[in-house]
Design goal:
153 residues; alpha+beta; five-stranded mixed sheet; globular
Length: 153
Amino acid sequence: MTIIQMKYFPETAESNSFQKAGDEAMEKRQANIEVVTKFYEEVFNGQDVSNIDKYMRDDYMQHNATVADGKTGFIEFTDFFFTLDPKFEILKIFANDNDEVAVFFKCTCQANGTVNKVVDIYRLQDGLLAEHWDVVEHDIANVETLSGRDLFE
């Protein structure tokens, strides 16, 4: 929003400070997106929690009813989840100025053929995942939509 506003300001010291703030906010959003994207690639698709410290705060808060708070709670969740051999395909990813990133993805559990439609929302703090919410539509591989459109396009 700040960058769009810049189009209407004459070139002044004040407008330059708005531009700089807008650039910094955009860089922070992009950095947050990169953290989440790498987390999905390495931890979920790579099924490797050995590098969890690189992505997650110790006091990570979880809003999924089946997963406990903290790194330990997340790792305990992956002990079962990885037996399903999940593959995540990120379809859309968004970030805002409040250190929040939303990810819309297709999760295919190769062990049982289940396909899930998922939106994860993360709050980051100091470049690390600090909080998580999710919305999941389970087992939608054979769902036919009334519109005729694909659920992932």
